[in-house]
Amino acid sequence: MSRTLFIAIIWTFACLNGCIWTDNADSPDYLPIDDSEYPYAGLPRLVIETDNFAQIRDKETKIPAKMQIYGEKGPESEIIDFTIKGRGNSSIGMSKYSMKIKFPEKREMLGMPADKEWALISNHADKTLLRNYMTFNLARQLEMGYVPRCSFVEVYLNRDYMGLYLLTETIKVNSSRLNIPKDENNYLVEVDAYYDNNDTIIRTAQQLPLKIHYPKNCGDTCQATLKTFADQWEDFIRTSFCYDTLARWIDIQDYSAYYWIEEFSKNADSNLKTSVFFTWERSGKIKMGPIWDFDLSYGEYRQFDPKEWYSRPNPWNRYLFKNAQFKQEIANYWKDHRNIFLSAIDSLDYYKKHIEKAAKNNFKRWPVLGTTFLWEFNQSYNSHEEAVDSLKSWMKQRAKWIDGNI
Fold first, then answer.
1. Cα–Cα distances in Å, from 381 out to 91, 370, 371?
2. CA dihedral sign, ordered 185, 190, 193, 196
3. Considering only CA atoms, which of 357, 346, 321, 332 is closest in space to residue 243?
4. Angstrom distance (rounded) from CA 152 to CA 164
């Protein structure tokens, strides 16, 4: 039998069994994928193998790995070397966990600008799989400045199908992401109660833990400057401040957009616990954002009731809302941008259609739609469509309640 005929027979057999393989005799650089159980769903597939099939166990251990991007018929990229580790606070402990990847050199991913660092968000607690994606798009419509770009992908890890993920830009300071001047006068800060010992942390007068993402290697003087400012900010809002003076500390329109994203969604983290980012330039204003982490929002995690304020009582807002002019400006922003928030509800059917086949694969791999006995799963659904319909209903009720209470 000729070599060509042998290859043709092997390829035909693979196709009949719903698998994609590459002829490793002519093209040795490939990663295998068996998609017979989880067929192509119209989205890019990231095929990942760690060295010696090492397990991803934590957020600290960087594991050498290889990746290849597959389309419908086969590989659409070369094999890419990188490192991978776990990521997230709660999601790292889930069966379908989130991951962080880092390439040795900057590279574009699925049309997104080149960078070394990317996140694979599992969205495992979100049975619609859409909350983060929808909220990022909502923020872009509100023209909130930098919003992380993202793309849905299916992930195979060590020849095991892992499900539908959101490949997302990480929040960092550079020209293609958060484009602020890279000097000692500019800060990127996160309110983060889940910091670890390797993070640079200061505590405000109200004991909020501020993790300094930038400048990197922020020394004692750098930290002291931020702490002085944060303490002065908290002292200011705790007094009966003059509204006109408030404009020296924050941009009201910027703050309003950030506030309403968090309040409309009843985001579990918007109580100034974690994933609340802001930037500050010395002698300048606080600018809230970028937004991040909305899988536990829109009625998903303990905030089932679409009524009541959630972000308004947080350690900063509870003082700001005592000022009548500030409260009125926030209300005006909602009235002026209400239709944009409602458009997010209308977008859900389109997004659902986009991931429909991949969601079917995902919930075949992770049959959790009806699960409620784990902390991350609070509501039971008979289908992915029912989960999306429930989200739409919650958002409509939330908008109606806000309309009647601003």
1. 21, 5, 8
2. negative
3. 321
4. 7
Q: What is the pLDDT of residues 323-368, one digit of tens each?
A: 999 999 999 999 999 999 999 999 999 999 999 999 999 999 999 9
pLDDT (tens digit per residue) in 67-121? 999 999 999 999 999 999 999 766 666 899 999 999 999 999 999 999 999 999 9
Which is nearest to 214 in space by CA: 251, 183, 169, 254?
183
Listed residue (368, 384, 386, 387) closest to 376, CA to CA: 368
Number of structural domains found in the chain: 1
> Is there a domain that residue 199 lies in?
no
State the average pLDDT for the chain. 91
Rounded distance between C-alpha atoms, residue 311 and residue 269, angstroms: 9
What domain range includes position 86? Answer: 3-169
21 domain residue, yes or no: yes
Q: With contact defined as beta carbons under 8 Å apart, do 236 and 204 qualify?
A: no
Q: What percent of the chain has pLDDT over 90?
A: 84
Q: What is the pLDDT of residue 91?
A: 62
Tell me how far apart the alpha carbons of residues 89 and 404 are, in angstroms, rounded to a whole number.
35
DSSP 3-state of 131: helix
- 379 in any annotated domain: no
Is 232 part of a structural domain of the chain?
Answer: no
List residues bridging with 365 in a β-sheet.
none
